[in-house]
TrEMBL record:
Alpha/beta hydrolase fold-3 domain segment(s): 107-255, 316-376
Native organism: Anolis carolinensis (Green anole)
The organism's place on the tree of life at top rank: Eukaryota
CC per GO annotation: endoplasmic reticulum membrane
Residues of the signal peptide: 1-16
SUPFAM superfamilies linked: alpha/beta-Hydrolases
Keywords associated with the record: Disulfide bond, Hydrolase, Signal
Protein name per UniProt: Arylacetamide deacetylase
Gene3D superfamilies the UniProt entry points to: alpha/beta hydrolase
Amino acid sequence: MGKKSLCLLIASVLIAYYVYNPLPENNEEGWKLMLIDAGFRTLGHMAGIAEKLGLAHYMETMMMLTYLEYAAPVSDEKVTVTDTKMNDVPVRLYVPKEKPDSLKRAVIFIHGGGWCLGGTAMSSYDLLSRWTSERLNAVVISIEYRLAPKYHFPVQFEDVYAVTKYFLQRSVLEEHKVDPERVCISGDSAGGNLAAAVTQQLLDDPDVKVKLKIQVLIYPALQTIDMNLPSYQDNKNMPILPKSLMLRFWSEYFTTDLSLMEAIETNQYVPPEFSHLFKFVNWSEWLPERFKRDHVYTSPVPGKSKFGQKYPGFFDPRAAPLLVDDVKLRGLPLTYVITCQHDVLRDDGLMYVSRLRKVGVPVIHEHLEGAIHGMLLMNSGPLFLNGGQIAVNNYIEWLNKNL
Ligand SMILES: *[C@@H]1O[C@H](CO)[C@@H](O)[C@H](O)[C@H]1NC(C)=O
């Protein structure tokens, strides 16, 4: 066997190893999903190796995807796109060209990426905002908040809060010709986490007079108490967000010290003085029956008490919006929640839906059967999935009817 064919053989075996991962059967584009999965896992392995060799922080390697997907702020015949700043925070602004003098709706959008990755300029996010602006004839403000590992909680929250608060001033809305009655906030994954946190905090902010009409939470991360929910157990190795990566994201949001991640992995870290929070993520109570399947509820086991002093933000509702009393949920605006079947974060979303409904907040819940985490990003280029395009269309259509 020649050198070339040997290399080819080894490459094929490696590719087959990477590509093969038993994925959900009811997915129509199984082979495509496997390739996407293989791509993400390869990147994850590279990041792990580079980190072990001391070459780069794990997230620095993972950021490659964000850079590779870079799309410049290009205006087209329908939408003017500019990179600018609001309240000193960079944003990408989409302003529709049609009917320039009439009052418009507005969407404040927060991208995902585990508080560490992603960006407004990623082509999938750029397209999502562009389509939203175009089809809704709405102003879209996509926020370029600062990321971990360089910046930790609450910087990410504070950046998105600063932009939202700035934009909701009457004078600013007027300047952008936006109808104050028709402003919504939306975000996916870590962006959904930030959107939920911002919406809650706005309720208690005496400076903000204009209310959000809608919050859209697209497969959001909402709690830091129980990392062994049925969805974490059932979807431990699902693309594009395996449990290990989600725990790493949570950990990096607060610190680069990996001892936090190790503590989270044991699911025995909530100090006794925080055990009153268990009830907010009691999935035995908050999860609809059909998602419990054969799982048996066990309450998380309290862990070491010094954890709470070391990472005080970990149970802060600005980081974990599910961890608040009912009184903090009352008064939230119409909420649209999207969850995916094969997603570790599924139950975070499902439990928020139950808790919001219980206190009378109007909630529309869309559950995407057969879908993986990040479905709305699968809208273009090599990541394109039919299901992704359908999910994007449904989301925009819903906004168009309700905002
Ligand atoms: C969780 O809910 C179940 C059923 O509603 C209840 O029996 C249990 O005591 C609860 N546990 C906690 C920690 O809240």
